[in-house]
Design goal:
With 283 residues, the protein is α/β, with parallel strands linked by helices. The protein folds into 2 domains: 61 residues, no CATH class; 194 residues, Ribonuclease H-like superfamily/Ribonuclease H (Nucleotidyltransferase, domain 5). 41% of the residues lie in helices and 10% in strands. A 5-stranded mixed sheet has the order 3-2-1-4-5. A hairpin with a 7-residue loop joins strand 1 and strand 2.
């Protein structure tokens, strides 16, 4: 899809892009041909466009997703997905839930391998591991996960970023992550009803009792978040390309979720819910 995209170019908006497509200028290669008249009819566009197309080819070949991320609107960032899928990290954090929160756990999934990081154990390792990826996918990460990570570790995440909150909203799916999952028919099974606030309580339970089952339940929840991000990303991509059938882009198969290495403890979940009856944990 990225090579069918023109709205990252100077002075090319959605209407101009759609006009290109309708006139059978479907790819960067087609536009280059039109610019030089090689396809039989030259078109009038800004002179800098050829240089920008050359840059686009060069940055794509180099695997530099950041070039495109800086030029695409948040709702259009999905267009990078297929081309950079092998360089993606789906990430999600859990925190202490305070105004100036500490990170308790981080889950990272790259479509093949699950990684998880726990405060007081291996949290610092995340700083090195995230450098292996060109593109990150989050839900509401632009306003929550990324700023907290950057402040907590005193680092800058320079990766390109697809925030599914904006992509899904452009498709009509509103609300938080759990709400979007339910709208798209994704069930959490034993973890149904566990949300971000509940994750805070699980961490407090673990710190208070050192009950490994509380930590394992938290990690199961955190990891399920990132696994579901891939499912939502694929679903969003497929829905986005449906009206663009003239481009000939094939839909992606639904990913097979990996086995989560932790099992949530139902007794702990029920006990925390019973101890906090006024709080609704369903999002």
């Amino acid at each position: 899809m990225l090579q069918n995209t023109f709205c990252h170019l100077n002075k090319i908006g959605p209407k101009r892009e759609t006009s290109f497509w309708k006139n059978r200028i479907l790819s960067w290669k087609d536009l280059l041909s039109a610019l030089t008249g090689d396809n039989g009819h030259a078109i009038k566009v800004p002179l800098c466009l050829k240089d920008e197309l050359d840059d686009s080819f060069r940055h794509l070949a180099a695997g530099n997703a950041g070039f495109f991320s800086g030029r695409l609107k948040s709702a259009d960032a999905w267009r990078m997905f297929a081309d950079f899928r092998s360089r993606i990290a789906y990430i999600d954090i859990e925190t202490t839930g305070l105004e100036d929160p500490d990170i308790t756990t981080i889950a990272l999934y790259d479509g093949k391998h699950i990684k998880y990081y726990v405060n007081g154990q291996n949290l610092a390792r995340f700083q090195d591991d995230i450098l292996n990826y060109q593109l990150i996918v989050t839900f509401n990460g632009k306003t929550f996960d990324v700023p907290i990570i950057e402040k907590f570790f005193n680092i800058k995440l320079d990766q390109a970023h697809i925030d599914l909150r904006y992509v899904l909203k452009s498709l009509g799916y509103s609300g938080g992550l759990k709400s979007c999952e339910k709208q798209l028919g994704i069930s959490r099974g034993e973890l149904d009803g566990v949300d971000g606030y509940f994750a805070v309580l699980l961490w407090h339970e673990y710190c208070k009792t050192r009950n490994s089952k509380a930590l394992e339940t938290l990690l199961a929840y955190n990891i399920e978040d990132v696994i579901n991000l891939e499912r939502l990303m694929v679903t969003a991509f497929n829905e986005k390309i449906k009206p663009l059938d003239l481009l000939g882009i094939e839909s992606l198969a639904e990913p097979l979720p990996p086995k989560i290495p932790f099992t949530p403890d139902r007794a702990i979940i029920d006990r925390i819910k019973y101890a906090n009856p006024v709080r609704s944990f369903y999002y």
